[in-house]
Amino acid sequence: MKEDRINIKQLLSVALKYWYLYALIFPMALGLAYLYLRITPKKYEATAMLLIKDEEKSGQIVEEAIFDELGVLGKKKKSLENEVLILKSTPIMEHVVQNLELQYEYFNLEFLKKRDLYKNSPIHVVDWKPNSDNAVVDAKIDIQNNGTYLLTEEDKRQYQGEFGKELRLPAGKLTLSYSRGKDIPGAVGLVISPPKEKAKALLDALDVSAVGELSSTVTMTYKDVDPQRAEAVLTELMALYNQQSIDEKNSVFENSLDLLNERIKLISRELADAEQNVETYRRRFNMVEMSAEGGLLLKELADYNREISGTDIQLEILSSIESFLERNKDNFEFVPTNININNLTLTSQIENFNELLRQRERQKNVYGASHPDIVLTEKQIKNLRQTIIDNIRSIRTDVQIGRNAKREMSSNIENRMASLPTRERELLDKERKKDLTENIYVYLLQKREQSAISLASTTATGRVIEPAESSDPVSPKVAQIMLIALFLGLALPSGLAFMAESMNDKIQNEEDIQRITSATVAGVLASSRKKSRLVVKENSTSAAAEMFRLLRANLAYILPGKDLKSLLVTSGVPGEGKSFIALNLGVTQALAGKKVVLLELDLRKPSQEFEDLESTDDGVVNYLIDPSLTPEMIIQNTGLHLNFDVVRCGAKPPNPGELILSPRLRELVTYLKSKYDFVILDTPPVGVVADALQVKDMADATMYVVRAGYTRKADFQTINDIIQKDKLPKPFIVLNAVKLNKRGYGSGYYSSYYGDEN
Q1: Which H or E element spans position 705?
Q2: 202 and 236 in one domain?
Q3: What's the pTM?
Q4: Do residues 325 and 336 lie in contact, with contact meaning Cβ atoms separated by under 8 Å?
Q5: Per-residue pLDDT averaged across 225-234, rounded?
Q6: Same structural domain for residues 224 and 252?
Q7: Which residues, in sequence order, are CB contacts of 677 under 8 Å at separation 6+?
Q8: Residues 312 and 441 in one domain
């Protein structure tokens, strides 16, 4: 079997054979591409760039200079990945939808496509009160001349409404307004979606990604059919993100202010009482000035009092933070940090605590309230809260020990004051208490002022590097769509054509034969348009006749160096035209001056090709049965040419398989070879019965006939088996019934050179 080969000629041949597929599918592909481009709305892409500040280095330096004791803000770099998740979270996008009223969609139908109206809609939703969170409206609004409208829902239910007045719908209560300057042809489509669901749809069109692995800049892109809306979405998203970060930072300062204001109220009352006591005591005893000794002792005592005051402030701060944590055990409030905590461990713990709170808020925005990650974070917050409380109590014990030591030094001075007069000593004690209270009060006032400044100067986490700006349409890509259409317009019919070819199990041409067998193709014969058994006639110039003449010439090459005396003609299955070819080949040889005889050996089913020939009563069967018959008695002329005789089958035998083995048959063939130049043995199909194999020794070569469009490729197993096992002498193939109008056989050549005669 020859190796399969696919060449350009073969590909073109198949393509031309199925030209109608290309004529149908190619323009259809281009038409569908045009229709797709016509009905698909153009999409625009808006792009923006946002710098996510490293808060340790991003503008918190001033605050850190004011509050050197702050421990949370600006000390820990936020994870860029977390910030990207916030920007792509449903809650923040839901706020975008509500702020821009994107849950309301307005459109106009234009030639099978929706034209988004956005800000060009003549109607506008003034108020929408849904009956449920999942309420949806999909309707058509027909604007009428009297300030009314007809609303038709998707299920064809209609409602008459008036602009500016509330309309009750199954999904809720709707109020619409109408702008006369924005008239458009036809009805206006209105779709109202739940903000959360609309937010999810918008997120599908949003992409947020870091510029680089080490970069703190993110690129944001959003695609929309309206470029103005695309820009608005990104702008609003960045604004909400920054506002959220500001609110988060302000929560710390607001809590600090609340705590400080609470303590200042308490201390201010204590200070007022202390000052009133001093003033009252002076007036009562007319003590305007102290003695020189008392003044020195008071000054010395004031120094120790300042140190004691510092410890009192620390104790006050620790108590305040402890009280804050205890009060908010079930809440997630930021712990104040800008109130001078002189303990690095406690400061770090509070920083971590506040950062966990921020982490929880981010997780809520991204995942929702019941996500396992949030549960884990809340557990960490609870554990850290108790750790901070325990640490505060431990620190307070240490501070109290230091305060007691300072109090002991202060007591020594007080003992020295014992020598002073009683009234002066009592005044000194009241002055000391007033000074201590005043120091705490002044400190708290300072911290409150600092917190107020921080609150007023809070900056956003993100800084807009490039504002939102839309581009030219990014989809559909016209060139790409048309290239795809061109490809499909060629590839699809090609695929169908070659599929049809592969599914066609019939022989079509000589190339098919060459791909599946090594046998020589000695001739290709055309089918006749005329239903005639005889296509070869004297002086005939038809293409079919010329092909038989070409076959006659090719027979000279079957047995090089030796004359071809006898030819066995067979086929694989009935109906392939072997008897037709045998008859016309005989005529062709006779016209060449050879004396030819055709021996009909298909004893089982005599061919209809020979029915009209001149006939005697006796034939091959009679000769084989009746020894009295001689060859001369069964030979007759065909009536087609003087040099062309025939030996018909004769009577139908009961045992053709055994009869053909008769020695008299060999004698008959030997006799015919001696009297004739060319003997044709017309045998039964070799793929059906074995008769042809029984007479193989009587022939010099074998003509194996196959029929175009009829013989199956699987039938070539027979001829391949014959060749491999040498079952028949010198087998070669003749391809019959090839249509001249089929590509690949030079229809133009034959029809123009030989004419149309058949």
Answers
A1: strand 701-707
A2: yes
A3: 0.52
A4: no
A5: 90
A6: no
A7: 565, 589, 594, 595, 596
A8: yes
Beta partners for residue 138, in sequence order: 191
pLDDT exceeds cutoff 50 at 75: no
Q: Other CB atoms closer than 10 Å to residue 633's CB: what's the count?
A: 14
For residue 728, give the DSSP letter. S
- Assess whether pLDDT exceeds 50 at residue 66: no
Using alpha carbons, select from 412, 447, 516, 48 the residue that is nearest to residue 262: 447
* Among candidate residues 183, 208, 243, the one where a domain is terminated: 243
Please tell me the distance from the alpha carbon of residue 683 to that of residue 694, in angstroms, as a whole number.
Answer: 10
CATH of the domain at 618: 3.40.50.300
Runs of H (alpha helix) within 156-226: 195-204
State the total domains in the chain: 4
Query: 3-state DSSP call for residue 163?
Result: coil
Non-local CB neighbours of 544 within 8 Å, separated by 6+ positions? 525, 526, 527, 528, 535, 536, 758
> Distance between CA atoms of 343 and 350, rounded to whole angstroms?
11
State how far the alpha carbon of 703 is from the alpha carbons of 696, 712, 730, in Å.
12, 18, 8
Same domain, 487 and 386: no
* 461 within 8 A of 242, measured Cβ to Cβ: yes
> Pick from 221, 243, 265: which residue ends a domain?
243
Tallying the residues shown for the chain, one arrives at 758
DSSP H stretches of helix in 368-421: 372-416
Output the six-digit token pair for 479: 């060139």
- Residue 226 shares a structural domain with residue 269: no
Residue 470 lies in a domain: no
What is the pLDDT averaged over residues 344-350?
Answer: 81
Q: Is residue 1 part of a domain?
A: no
On the CB side of 195, how many CA atoms lie within 13 Å of its CA? 15
pLDDT at 614: 58
Q: Which two tokens stand for residue 727?
A: 């079952």
Q: Are 491 and 560 contained in the same domain?
A: no
Report the DSSP pairing between strands 43-52 and 217-224: antiparallel
Query: Which amino acid would we find at residue 106?
Result: Y
Q: 558 forms bridges with which residues in the sheet?
A: none
If asked whether residues 675 and 584 sit together in one domain, one would say: yes
User: Residue 43's pLDDT band (boundaries 50, 70, 90)?
Assistant: confident
Judgement on whether residues 60 and 16 belong to the same structural domain of the protein: no
The parent domain of residue 20 ranges over 8-40+476-503
Residues 395, 390: Cα–Cα separation, whole Å = 9
